[in-house]
Amino acid sequence: MTAQIPVLDSRIVDLTTPLSPSTPVVPVPEPFAPTAALSFTPVSDFDEHGPGWSWSDITLGEHAGTHVDAPRHWISGRDGRSIDQIPPERLVGPVAVLDRTAEVAENPGYLVTADDLERWEAEHGRMQPGTWLLVRTGWSARGEDAERFLNGNVWPGLTLKAAKWLAAHPHLSGYGVEAIGIDGLGAGPEAGDAEDDPGAFGPGHYYLLGSDKYGLTSLRNLDMLPATGAWIVVAPLPLVGGTAGPARVFAFVPDGGEGE
């Protein structure tokens, strides 16, 4: 990667959702097992267990809050990289922002299409090497209300064709969203698709993670980013063998770059 992050001439935008015990996790129906939300177990708090310090143990699912999905999270990438094996240079790169706020306001289950992606490149040019494509939907406005954020298991996602388009893009490192997961639960085969396509359920997970590209969820402040020109730093916990890592995510926006 020959381009440089314009650190000195940029403002820093935090794209991370604050993580607390009330932060929702992906709802998983029975008989499947859900992941854990954040919880704290105090160890000491300036007391007889530690008179000069306070600290706690935590329980936290890999996929809670703002986090990065590694390839081995999904069956299509099960032999791929775990979160600690993702090269650092894949976690820093230029940002492309696709705005679908109006569409999601009309249809909360809106699925990004391959046509959406092709039109973005026709307007803004080919995505650069190492790009993270972030989809702005306005969904993060629901982030402080778990019921609205989960919305009866209806949130924006990707069509099967869009997932395949992204998986085939030679310059894409990752795909980020404001919702709790990169796939909406309403995704499925489109007209002309084979009903038995293995990616029909969870197309983003299946095709992106299966092609060594990464998912990034529960983002905020995407309205503060321009369509192009910003850079992202994605910093997941390097959990050895992990299928994901809770992350702090920052964007560097050059002076003069404004959100849409």
UniProtKB/TrEMBL annotation:
InterPro entries: KFase/CYL, KFase_sf. GO terms for biological process: L-tryptophan catabolic process to kynurenine. Keywords: Hydrolase. It holds the Pfam family Cyclase. One of its GO terms (molecular function) is arylformamidase activity. Its EC number is 3.5.1.9. It is an enzyme of class 3 (hydrolase). The keyword Protease does not apply. It comes from the Bacteria. PANTHER family: CYCLASE-LIKE PROTEIN 2. This is Kynurenine formamidase. It comes from Microbacterium azadirachtae.
